[in-house]
Amino acid sequence: MTILRLMYEFFKTGLFSVGGGLATLPFLYEMSDKTGWFSHADIADMIAVSESTPGAIGINMSTYAGFKTAGIPGALLASLSLAAPSVIVILIIAAFLNRFRNNPYVEGAFYGLRPASIAMITAAGINVAKVALVNTAAYAAGDLVGFFLPIPILMAVILFIAMRKLKWSPVVFIALSAVVGVILKL
Amino acid sequence: MQEYLDIYLTFARIGCITFGGGYAMLPILERELTVKRNWTTMDDLRDYFSIGQCTPGIIALNVSTFIGEKRKGIPGALCATTGFLTGPVIIILIIASFLQNFAEEPLVRHAFAGIRVCVCVLIVQAVLRLWKSSVVDLRALILYLIVFILHAFGGLMPVKIPAAVLVLMAGAAGILLSMQRIRATGKNNGKNSGKEGSAS
Question: Does this complex have an ipTM over 0.85?
Answer without folding.
Answer: no
